[in-house]
Amino acid sequence: MRWYFVLILALLSTGVFAQDAPITEAAAAVPDPAIKAVNDELATLRSETNWLWTCIAAFLVFFMQAGFAYVEAGFTRAKNVVNILMKNFIDFCFGSIFFWLIGFSIMFGPQLFPGFGIGIPGLADSLIVKEGTPDKWGFAFLIFQMVFAATAATIVSGAMAERTKFVSYIIFSALITAFIYPMFGSLAWAGLWGLGKGFLEQQGFIDFAGSTVVHSVGGWAGLAGALILGPRIGKYQDGKLFPILGHNMSMAALGVFILWFGWFGFNPGSTTSVSGGNFAVIAVTTNMSAAAGALAAMIITWIMFKKPDIGLSLNGALAGLVAITSPCANVSISSAVIIGLVAGILVVLSVLFFDRIHIDDPVGAVSVHGVCGAWGTLAAGLFAQEAYGGVNGLFFGGELSVVLVQLTGIGIAFVWSFGASSIIFLGLKYTVGLRVSEDEEITGLDILEHGNEAYPISK
């Protein structure tokens, strides 16, 4: 470490610490080996700081699994809480394994279709361990992408809650993280690893942290599952809607707070870098959209139902978070608030619409993640500003082509995720079975599927 002392003495002798000292002259007086050593040390420090930030963000996103579990458990009945908790717990475990086995390489590996996307299936090790030497950045990138994949999977459990066989659900969790999510992700994000950009990336598609790549893919998969399953017993009778209320709003509210907190890893963490301070801008736009979404949902339910509804208000916050996930790095604070306000209104209308057409989504997952994910992706093409993300959206002088690219991504995501998921769910329905028996649904999935209860009565 003696070169440090040589450097310090050289800098002091040339007056580099003086306010008006030219740094270039001071550097010229320092021996070349010392300069090189300092530059190498600074480069290493920058890299390791970025790795640390990426890993911390990944840990925050991992904690979102607890948020999803609590939101879904709170919005469902007490007799199905163990089942919901098991699904949110196990789909992360399955998601981690299958994304490592297959998904990561499909999403980021050498492309089967150069210039389009979709990598060659294989272990993630083939990309992050090069010639037997671990690529430390590769490990940070893998854990960050792994928790994103698990998020797409866990969205589905809410839309299919209270009537899905556990074994069928975990089979689907494996398949969405191994194939459905990474195949679309390759079109939008393949270039993040540097082995070639995907089709949508080449067109200029904006989805910074995954309104469509993660949330809409999960939401449209949930829509397919809810359609094929059919509604819960007693939800719709003689053409009328009979609400089935969640058992614990305290649990649901805590889940939303956890998710909101985790989103500060989800969106700002997608910078994978602390340089430039972009993560701070993204943190603010993320927060403001969530707040605006919650307020909009509260106000519209107050107007429509004469009382502010807790469930839809909580979903309004999530809608704002999902919507801003795509444009968070490309829009101003004012635009983020508008995006959140629209999302908060949209999620309420969407939940009511799906109920009207008798699609039973116990937690509003399709509306929050599918519909508002699509809105957020479209909003990126409308509200983007060059000062933030290097491109102007339609409302700020940009060309219509920016919006058309966003619509293309939204459309491909819907057709792929809904279509592929429908095929898988139909296959499960006619093989191992997709829905539990009527008796099991009435009794509750906790006892018959897991032999346990969330709230056992002491005798």
From TrEMBL:
Entry-linked InterPro entries: Ammonium/urea_transptr (IPR029020), Ammonium_transpt (IPR001905), Ammonium_transpt_CS (IPR018047), NH4_transpt_AmtB-like_dom (IPR024041)
UniProt-annotated location(s): Cell membrane; Membrane
Family: Belongs to the ammonia transporter channel (TC 1.A.11.2) family.
Ammonium transporter AmtB-like domain residues: 53-455
Keywords in alphabetical order: Ammonia transport, Membrane, Signal, Transmembrane, Transmembrane helix, Transport
Transmembrane segments: 51-71, 92-113, 137-159, 166-184, 204-229, 241-266, 278-303, 310-327, 333-354, 366-384, 404-428
Recorded GO MF terms: ammonium channel activity
Example GO BP: ammonium homeostasis
UniProt signal peptide: 1-18
Keyword presence, Transmembrane: yes
Any one Gene Ontology cellular component term annotated for this protein: plasma membrane
Membrane topology: Multi-pass membrane protein
UniProt protein name: Ammonium transporter
